């Protein structure tokens, strides 16, 4: 039985880290730290669960289910698998994630260095490059990816280490009442769990191509690579979140996420930091944009059975991304919040259940858990949109853990139990 050596596992682990750590992820940990202040450790724990633990678990879950997004989602039902996979691709594609790369590239990479360039021109250039690199058979993006991650890591490590050795301030009491649940909920914005359901298949295929065909060995290999990626993400996220917490005595609570990250960097490294950060972030955003655009192109081309070819989908995705990116990073994050409140709990419960799939005889509980979760997550999402959910919303707030944002847990468990009982009753009735 073939096994990968330590070097090969390390390479895949770094690749998985790079997949999850897009430049946009730079802006969330500092803002959470700023909000949490002296309670930053509890906030970090919550953020680490949704920003690190669940995405790694998502990759493992896909491997356990059979190695693809469909193998995981089909356990609920084929129609659900099609709808939910399309929804995931739209969210990590032209609706949220791809436009956010363009907006982040402008606000961190362009605006501080070239204030005369507006967001429209910037987005046209950025997504013009995205379109060219996605459609053309060029190796430029591979070169960028190979050298970008080490450079970005060195830059971030320099900021973190210097920020710890010479703190810009001290964490203060910000009167945050629920730092853990705030960190957990804000971790939704990384969208890494949704991406993990897609990336899982890519990692499994890569391992198979390296000759690892035995399922147990595939799982062990993915677990090792996931540990490497998780440690890397933990160090980076922990350091950035602490810098934000230290800045709670320096920066106002209302400061925008992009401005906070930029100002922390300038405070620690001076104007040189602004230049280097801008270059690294722009390159990272471009790489992420190209990768996601290509993924979306291949996905919709395949499910339409080439009725819509790859190039057409990529062009449409790029045009939509240009339009949405111009509303700005903060507006995209605000727009994404209610949508992710609906979708993320469903993804979480499916990934967690699937980890124990070998112990589950009645596969219909996947449907029950999904329905139970959706009943609450939909109301939470509508409430976040400002919709008056009346007595239903009030009832949900009485559920266990609802005050911490986890009201969907009890209905998910109830859905599992009811589905199992109904199945058993039907079996006994026809026995």
UniProtKB/TrEMBL annotation:
GO BP, sorted A to Z: isoleucine transport; L-leucine transport
Keyword annotations of the record: Amino-acid transport, Cell membrane, Membrane, Transmembrane, Transmembrane helix, Transport
UniProt-recorded Gene Ontology molecular function terms: L-isoleucine transmembrane transporter activity; L-leucine transmembrane transporter activity; L-valine transmembrane transporter activity
Main location: membrane
Keyword Glycoprotein: no
Topology term for the membrane: Multi-pass membrane protein
Compartmental location: Cell membrane
One cellular-component annotation, GO: plasma membrane
Residues passing through the membrane, by range: 9-28, 40-64, 76-97, 117-135, 147-168, 188-204, 225-245, 275-300, 312-336, 342-360, 365-385, 405-423
InterPro entries found in the cross-reference section: Brnchd-chn_aa_trnsp_Livcs (IPR004685)
Pfam families named among the record's database cross-references: Branch_AA_trans
Family recorded in the similarity comment: Belongs to the branched chain amino acid transporter family.
Job of this protein: Component of the transport system for branched-chain amino acids.
Matches recorded under PANTHER family: BRANCHED-CHAIN AMINO ACID PERMEASE BRNQ, BRANCHED-CHAIN AMINO ACID TRANSPORT SYSTEM 2 CARRIER PROTEIN
Protein name, as recorded: Branched-chain amino acid transport system carrier protein
Organism: Anaerosalibacter bizertensis
């Amino acid at each position: 039985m073939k096994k990968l050596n330590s070097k090969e596992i390390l390479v895949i682990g770094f690749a998985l880290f790079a997949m999850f750590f897009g430049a946009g992820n730079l802006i969330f940990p500092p803002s959470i730290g700023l909000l949490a202040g002296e309670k930053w450790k509890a906030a970090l724990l919550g953020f680490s669960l949704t920003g690190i633990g669940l995405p790694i678990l998502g990759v493992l879950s896909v491997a356990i289910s059979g190695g693809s997004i469909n193998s995981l989602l089909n356990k609920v039902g084929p129609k659900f698998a099609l709808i939910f996979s399309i929804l995931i691709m739209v969210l990590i594609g032209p609706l949220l994630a791809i436009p956010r790369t363009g907006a982040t590239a402008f606000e961190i990479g362009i605006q501080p260095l070239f204030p005369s360039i507006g967001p429209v021109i910037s987005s046209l250039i950025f997504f013009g490059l995205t379109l060219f690199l996605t459609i053309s058979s060029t190796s430029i993006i591979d070169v960028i990816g190979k050298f970008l991650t080490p450079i970005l890591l060195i830059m971030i490590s320099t900021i973190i280490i210097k920020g710890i050795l010479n703190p810009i301030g001290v964490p203060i009491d910000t009167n945050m009442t629920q730092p853990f649940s705030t960190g957990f909920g804000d971790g939704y914005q990384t969208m890494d769990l949704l991406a993990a359901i897609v990336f899982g298949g890519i990692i499994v295929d890569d391992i198979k191509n390296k000759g690892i065909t035995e399922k147990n060995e595939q799982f062990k290999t993915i677990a090792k690579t996931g540990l490497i990626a998780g440690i890397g993400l933990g160090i980076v996220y922990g350091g950035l979140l602490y810098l934000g917490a230290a800045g709670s005595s320096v920066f106002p609570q209302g400061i925008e996420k992009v401005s906070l990250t930029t100002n922390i960097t300038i405070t620690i490294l001076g104007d040189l930091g602004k230049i280097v950060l801008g270059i690294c972030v722009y390159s990272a955003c471009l790489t992420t944009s190209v990768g996601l655009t290509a993924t979306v192109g291949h996905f919709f081309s395949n499910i339409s059975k080439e009725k819509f070819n790859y190039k057409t989908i990529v062009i449409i995705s790029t045009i939509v991304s240009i339009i949405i990116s111009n509303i700005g990073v903060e507006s995209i994050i605000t727009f994404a919040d209610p949508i992710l409140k609906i979708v993320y709990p469903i993804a979480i419960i499916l990934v967690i259940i699937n980890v124990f799939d070998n112990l589950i005889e009645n596969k219909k509980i996947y449907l029950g858990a999904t329905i139970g979760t959706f009943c609450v997550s939909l109301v939470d999402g509508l409430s976040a949109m400002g919709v008056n959910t009346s007595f239903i919303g009030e009832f949900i707030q009485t559920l266990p853990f609802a005050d911490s944002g986890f009201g969907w847990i009890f209905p998910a468990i109830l859905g599992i139990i009811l589905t199992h009982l109904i199945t058993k009753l039907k079996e006994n009735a026809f026995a």
